[in-house]
């Protein structure tokens, strides 16, 4: 099998972190990149999910809490205006 060289640009700190991680797995950067490219070719897609603005677990928990409040699973006070809210806070 013939091989060819490839040059990529990557943040130097990210490269160091990746090299350390790959070393822990017994891999070097070349082997890891070959594994990645082989999976792309085999699967016909990027072999992991790519998502923008994916909420973390704390945010997901907050969303679930609000959904529970809206559905009535969690009982909360409701106010029809800001003035009503402040009146309640002052009392």
Beta fraction: under 5%
Q: Oligomeric state of the chains?
A: single chain
Number of strand segments:
0
The largest pleated sheet is described as: none
- Tertiary shape: elongated
End-to-end distance: 80 Å
Share of helical residues: 55-70%
Unreliable spans are: none
Radius of gyration: 25 Å
SSE string, helix = H, strand = E?
A: HHHH
Secondary structural class: mainly alpha
Taken together, the total number of domains comes to 2
Tally of individual helices = 4
**What number is the mean pLDDT?**
94
Which secondary structure elements does this structure contain, and how are they paired or packed?
Layout: H1 12-24, H2 29-43, H3 57-71, H4 82-90
Protein model, in words:
With 91 residues, this protein is mainly alpha-helical. The protein folds into two domains: 12-43, no CATH class; 57-90, no CATH class. Helices cover 57% and strands 0% of the residues. The protein is built from four helices and no strands. It has helices at residues 12-24, 29-43, 57-71, 82-90. The radius of gyration is 25 Å and the shape is elongated. It starts with 11 loop residues before the first helix and ends with a helix.
Short description:
With 91 residues, the chain is mainly α. Helices cover 57% and strands 0% of the residues.
Descriptors:
elongated, 2 domains, mainly alpha
């Amino acid at each position: 099998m013939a091989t060819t060289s490839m040059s990529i640009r990557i943040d130097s700190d990210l490269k160091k972190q990746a090299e350390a991680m790959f070393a822990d797995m017994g891999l070097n950067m070349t082997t890891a990149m070959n594994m990645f490219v082989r999976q792309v070719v085999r699967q016909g897609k990027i072999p992991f999910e790519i998502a923008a603005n994916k909420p973390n677990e704390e945010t997901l928990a907050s969303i679930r809490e609000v959904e529970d409040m809206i559905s009535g699973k969690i009982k909360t006070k409701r106010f029809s205006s800001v003035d009503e809210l402040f009146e309640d806070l002052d009392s």
